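pipeline stage [seq->struct] | target=Membrane protein | organism=Micromonospora sediminimaris | residues=304
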Amino acid sequence: MSDDQSRRGPRAFTPDFLTELFRNPLDPGYADAAARRAETGRPARSGWSVGPVGLVVIVLLGFLFAVAYRQTMAEEPGRAQARSGLVAQIKQRQGETDALSTRAEELREEVNRQREAALGGSRAARLRELEASTGLGRVRGDGVVVELADAPGGQDALGGADAGPAQVIYLDLQSVANDLWGAGAEAIAINGQRLTSTSTIRSAGQAILVDFRPVTGPYEVSAIGPGGMRERYEASGSALTMRQVAKVTGLSFAVRDADDLTLPAAPELRLRYAEPAVSPSVSSSGGDESSGSGTSPSPSGGGR
């Protein structure tokens, strides 16, 4: 070793950043803070502390929650009373509606008896046939009943996963009724609501309306028709579709034969746009006195 090397001493290597980081991972500030706490003798604070402002805010929030809870509980009897009053009114109106419907049916039967007595045999029979075909008369006979019901809980029948609202919708009832007509049905009713040529099946929110009257599940579509109607309906598009939907979603769908069905009459039709044709008046033998011609006068009020 030379004299220069002996004077310099052993060679020192400056560590790089990564080596220093692994050697001293703790930030120097933590060591300084610990040293100051050791000099002053104060222990380190644990947890959190609440100052005067925070304490006031907490007390104020607690007071507001207490007032809101008290006001809610004070108003609860009033809301419960109003709810029970509305339920009572709904039940009362339903009872009145049922009573009026029963009375209307009795009056209709009385009118039919009086009318048949006034018309006589053949014309009364013809009138009954027309009423049955248009839905204005009660009918009895053998037929088919299609039953539909919502899936229990809206669960998927295959995987058990939530399949959403597996419910019967108005389009299902529409397709079933149309295919029953196509299979030869002569009269159809949905939950006792008789269908006519002007009937509508639609939805209003979650409710299904048949001729603007709500129907609830389970749904029964009853049809009176000739023999073989069930076989023809089983091969229809709605039957195949509903069976597939029932298999996937758990919705209930069944078709069965029914003997001696009785379908009620539909309410009186309200034709708002039909007008009777005006027949031309018969001219007198002497012709028109004012004009002196032999042509017949035009019917009063116009006409078609």
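stage status: PASS
auto-comment: Strands lie at 139-149, 187-190, 193-194, 201-204, 207-210, 213-215, 219-224, 252-263. The longest helix spans residues 52-119.
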